Batch of 2 targets.
Target 1
Amino acid sequence: MATASAVSALGAKPVFADINPTTYNIDAAQLARRVTPRTRAIVVVHLYGLAADMDPIMEFAHSRNLPVVEDSAQAIGAGYKGRRTGSLGDVACFSFYPTKNLGACGDAGMIVTNSAKHAERLRILRNHGQTEKYVSSEPGWNGRLDEMQAAILRVKLRHLAAWQRARQAHAAEYTRHFAQIPGIMPPLVPEGYEHVFHQYTVRAEERDKLQRVLSEKKIGSAVYYPVPLHLQPLYASLGHKEGDFPHAEHAAQEVLSLPMYPELRPAQLARVAEAVTEFVRH
Ligand SMILES: Cc1ncc(COP(=O)(O)O)c(C=O)c1O
């Protein structure tokens, strides 16, 4: 929702495209079908910590002369064919919201770009549109990174690679447990990608029942996200109906994110994996 509502907040109209059902990221072919002469930019979310398939997206965007914004809020450090998310599009956004892989002690975020022109404009916008002190030529906002948050993030940044390795080891262990279990589909990591597992999200046909059973065992889990964007009340005026983006709708009914954080202990992980396995076997 944060991605789409940023578009709406500009007074622009978000136009959605369906996902690839195995990666949960935007499908390049679907995207191409949704672009019109009125399209001004393409926004790609790298969901759960896995990069979207950027090569065909960038190729298509260049052919149409459209800029690409990467929403890398969930995917700091994620790899795609030897590069990292945030370096693949024209501009990229990161979130340091406390639950993110690199979390501040409150709200914080970052935009990166290789374009000097975009960087200059963004520096103006983040500070009330000021081109010099107390002189503004366009409306902006307060998008400054608080110094205390920056100080905390600089210290935590040193640990990010180790935390990432821990998440990846936990994910490999979960997947080892689930690989032979029918009815549970572990997250896919395509060849050439490095997943950073902001979430470890499985698909389960009886997702709601599984979540209830886990909850009874005091095991936390979460659904990211239960309502697809095109069916949100905010976007009722776009006139979408159920069935417009079947892969996104199907995923919304089946995805479940299991406990995932660097400090997860082997016994805790085993307890979660056993609870899921037991549910499927009964
Ligand atoms: C994919 C995605 N985009 C954008 C955001 C927004 O980031 P923030 O809350 O730092 O504004 C989030 C998380 O909140 C997110 O998960």
Target 2
Amino acid sequence: MKLFCSIEDVFRSDVPGVKEVAEVDLQGRRTGTLCLFHPDVRSFWTGLATDLCKSYDIDGILFFNERNGPLLNALGASHSQSIASSRVTCFCEHHQKAAREHGIHFDRAREGYAKLDRFVQASLKDQRPGDGYFAEFWRLLVEHPEIIAWDRLFDIGKHQVLAEVNGAVKDVHKGLQVGFHIEHVNSFNPIFRATRRYDDLATKADFLKVVVYNNCGGERYQRFINNVGSTVFRDVPKELLLQFNSKLLNYGDEARLDELPTTGLSPDYVARETRRALAGVEGKCIILPGIDIGIPTGGNSRKASPDDTYAATRAALEAGAHGLILSRKYSEMRLANLEAAGRAVREFAK
Ligand SMILES: [Zn+2]
């Protein structure tokens, strides 16, 4: 394939008309992200994909939409730096309509997220509930199942956009390839993982770019553990939490929590996540792991050597990947690492 075009949805607030299609948070404020249920936003994405496919001699589209649902955002249960429980979305009129169509009680969902916000803020202040952090969190879900339903509604909106973009591209030319970027959090967070069925995603795409960035993965995984370890799992020592979570994810031997940023995740992680994706799609689409080449990390975090990049690339290929996407962008890549990835591909092909 010659070219991929990436489409993101974060817009400057001074783009004309963008405020009207932005998401609305728990407090009723407009945010900087686009509402997945706003008809104009959906038309924008399909229109943009159509225009790209008609105007340029490209082989396909990689649709990139690195967005998490309200539950993850509330808990900071990703590698995100922030725990944004007071700013979860989207409570606009289009979401209200979508909620009705899916039998979700809008006001109960908003009330559930307001309670979740109070739980998160109290946890961050070290105010331990009498029954413990985890029981209190689970009780919120039991008493407000709308919290899960609302998160699910986000997934429905996101996957509907994926299906629409796929349809728009195929309408231009059946032979154009469509792929989706599968977020890094899919490999760190078992709760998020449960919401992503590879076999379902495979029905909407020709290929999936599965993020297996192992170098920056170290500091990102540490951040995830620190975030969930400061709210829902606050009663568990973080090193233990890391070990427990890694078992849930079927990770092998990775570094200790304090060493993760300087060690990164191993080539074995790359291989395991590649194999999981291959098994998950059941042959319905191809798997192109996203290989970390120079993705920026913190000042004291690991910078991958060319040998590291070679090992990660080789691990994905040996695990059975159909191809690779060297990620994320050329401007981040050191040529020696790029050369090492190329060498791994050529040597594997021999
Ligand atoms: Zn909305």
